[in-house]
Amino acid sequence: MNDVVITGIGVVLPNCDDRETLWQHLSCGESQLRREPNPAYPNESIAVGRVWDFDPADYLAEMPERFFSRYDREVQIYLASLMLARDDANISLESITPERFGILDGCSRPGFAGWYERIVAQVTNNSFDSYSSRDLMSGTPGLAAGIAASLFEARGSVYTFNSTCSSGAVAIGQAFREIQQGRLDVALATGHEAALCPPLFAMYRDGQLLSSDVEDPKRAVRPYSDCIGNAFGEGSITLVLESAAHAKSRGAQPIARIRSYWYGNNGFHPTTPDLAGGQPARLILSALRDAGLSVDDIGFIVGHGNGVQLSDSSEENYMLLLLGERAHEVPLVSNKPIYGHTLGASSALNVATTALMLKHDYVIPTININHARANDAFDHMAGKGRNGSGRAGVTVSFGLGGNNTVLLLDGVTQP
User: Rounded to two decimals, what is the model's pTM?
Assistant: First the structure.
């Protein structure tokens, strides 16, 4: 079984398109959320993590504009993160054996915004023109990875995973398994989302999932304390995964190593998480067993942390089941107050956050914790990070449908 390392991170998020800026936002607790009219109810305001002023030409200039201009904005953002990850890893994709190169993508609502805008335009103009091959290429769910495969000449595993908010972590986990088992040498694994459009905001509002704080958008997400709802965001996070041997052969400096991946379902309710925390705890224990580690090796957990009472309660309960008396010693942190809940991209962001915390030997803060309402039995690193990330880090993601995803990472000693 091959060791699998992360050698590059490509990110397109609000006010962020490089690894250094991502780490600054995370480690300093700098929220990028803004206030804007609710697309579904313009008389109301919401907090949003939108990728403002995105210009595909800034990232995709190496291909003719007539190519990338055909793609919907979601696909452009996705492709941009792939290019940035490639450059961050300093890897020449042309040098990889095509059959040993994979592209794995995760998205909870692929193509939704593009098709919505196209249909609305036709209805508004009372013009039902026939669709073209361009529409098929841009709008078919899951085809973004296929477009990337054709651009990069990848002939190995090319998948798209739809596991709601766990989608990005599932793509990364599956890429890990394919490299671990020797089927691939290199993979680009992504979580992306770009679906900030009226129908979805109407669903979130009517489902009472939108944050009630619209006065200060930077405080709109308050995990593990106030639980006032979500602010939603968009973006794309791509990780370059390689076998350790492949990375060493080209002199790459790994960011972190993935040790194990487990995925399972609650199996009892499509929207309510496992309140007792039993399933996430079992998955974490399975990941530790695979890696030959114990609960004492866990230095921190990057949680789902979406500021919804049921999810937050589930997380604190799995901490108790897993760690017992040590539950107050192991930080459980959330990055969602920084960029909002980016849906299918959020779990990929969790993995990237875990990798960077291990690389920098630093545990990031969770901002917007209300001390008066937070449970003192847990350490959420309220508003302040600290040096020392421990031997291993765990990332946990939840998703509608009962999805639970766990990845276990550890640091890599640099030569």
Answer: 0.96
